[in-house]
From TrEMBL:
Listed name of the protein: N-acetylmuramoyl-L-alanine amidase
Residues covered by the N-acetylmuramoyl-L-alanine amidase domain: 93-222
UniProt keyword annotations, A-Z: Cell wall biogenesis/degradation, Hydrolase
GO-annotated biological processes: cell wall organization; peptidoglycan catabolic process; peptidoglycan turnover
Protein's organism: Streptomyces phaeolivaceus
Length: 246
């Protein structure tokens, strides 16, 4: 989410910078309808080289990791231990089978421009057209709303959506004092875990702000987001995890 730069299309939504309205409405544009074609391509590829793929990968992959075979899902299951599950409207994401159909190599940092509750609420609204995988509250609580398997409409860029996990943070771009120590730490632990899961390098090429996504008109997480502090926390969380099993 986040505030827009000078509104290009004049639909900047409700006043007060709330999380509702058009703040992330542009995410709807990447609600691409080409999933059918993509699925078709995958299906064809599997049919053509399926045997070779299975042979090559059989030592390192479980059967369900073969592209085109959907992984088992359980209602309410989360990808991050400790996260609370609240499902987003299925209009705000699309089903995928990541990281097998699309590799995940980015974490994208957002700021909600509103309260935690308002962000969770709009992500449940099918009219909103956008949602992130996770929302982190000021006290460090983490809610997951979309499985990492799936593509969330959060970056306003189809390619980046397919390749990333999106994390929203309660607060306002203009009020960096909203970014509490608890929030930074909780988010850093979450990002470290995501990066470990998909082998994502812990650098700013791969952990980026919404503002850095090509084509976006959003400014979050804003100048007030302390990247040095955040990246240090992410690396520290990753280092501490190496001694404790997942
Ligand atoms: Zn954003």
């Amino acid at each position: 989410m986040g505030t827009r730069r000078a509104s290009k299309n004049g639909s900047s939504g409700s006043g007060g910078g709330g999380a509702s309205g058009g703040a992330t409405g542009s995410g709807g544009k990447d609600a691409d309808r080409r999933v059918g074609r993509r699925a078709l391509l995958i299906g064809t590829a599997v049919a053509a080289v399926g045997t070779a793929v299975v042979a090559r990968d059989e030592l390192t992959r479980a059967w369900w990791r073969v592209p085109g075979v959907a992984k088992p899902r359980k209602e309410g299951e989360v990808d991050y231990t400790g996260a609370k599950w609240v499902s987003a409207s299925d209009a705000n994401w699309r089903m995928a089978d990541r990281p097998d159909d699309f590799g995940i190599d980015m974490v994208i940092i957002h700021v909600t421009q509103g309260s935690f509750d308002s962000a969770v609420k709009v992500f449940q609204d099918p009219q909103h057209g956008a949602a992130a995988h996770y929302v982190v509250r000021e006290d460090g609580h983490v809610t997951q709303m979309i499985r990492e398997l799936d593509v969330a409409y959060h970056a306003g860029n189809r390619d980046y959506n397919e390749r990333s996990v999106g994390i929203e943070h309660e607060g306002f771009v203009e009020k960096p004092e909203d970014f509490t120590a608890e929030m930074y730490e909780a988010s850093a632990r979450l990002t470290a875990r995501i990066c470990a899961r998909y082998d994502i390098p812990l650098d700013r090429e791969h952990i980026l702000g919404h503002v850095e996504v090509p084509g976006t008109d959003h400014t979050d997480p804003g100048e007030g987001w302390d990247w040095d502090r955040y990246m240090k926390l992410v690396r520290a969380a990753a280092a501490s995890r190496t001694s404790t099993p997942a």
